């Protein structure tokens, strides 16, 4: 039996111009049941690969569980991280991964906990 992923996102900016964005993707059928890992890991100040046992990446959830430090993350390219994301303390979000892409992360000041869940689909 296949699994199902549901994703809902909402962003509202209320300043001189109101902007509201909705994304609702339900019933993303997992053709391969797997994922959930690596879980909560400690990320240091040097770039680190996010190691997962998922072989065919799909959706990823990443959240900075630290109360003080910022986390930078992005894909590994030519052995180094191409930074495309920044998570301030407590922030998190979902995104889709391409198969074969290795995600790297690093903390800005001191090691911190980051929650990462990657699910095949």
Structure write-up:
The structure is a single chain. By secondary structure, this protein is mainly beta. It has a single domain, classed as Jelly Rolls, CATH 2.60.120. Helices cover about 0% and strands about 60% of the residues. The strands form 3 sheets. Strands 4, 6, 7, 8 and 10 form a 5-stranded antiparallel sheet that branches. It is globular and about 35 Å long. It starts with a strand and ends with a strand. The relative contact order is 0.31. The model has no long low-confidence stretch (mean pLDDT about 85).
What is the fold's blueprint, element by element?
Layout: E1 3-14, E2 18-30, E3 35-43, E4 48-49, E5 59-64, E6 71-77, E7 80-81, E8 85-87, E9 92-96, E10 103-107, E11 112-119
Antiparallel strand pairs: 1-2, 3-11, 4-10, 5-9, 5-11, 6-7, 6-8, 6-10
**Tally of domains:** 1
> What helical percentage do the residues reach?
under 10%
What is the number of strand segments? Answer: 11
Q: Low-confidence stretches at least 5 residues in length (pLDDT < 50)? A: none
Provide a count of the helices: 0
Shape: globular
Q: Would you state the CATH class?
A: Mainly Beta
Gyration radius over CA: 15 Å
- Tell me the CATH architecture: Sandwich
Beta-strand residue percentage: over 45%
For the report, how would you describe the main beta sheet?
5 strands, antiparallel
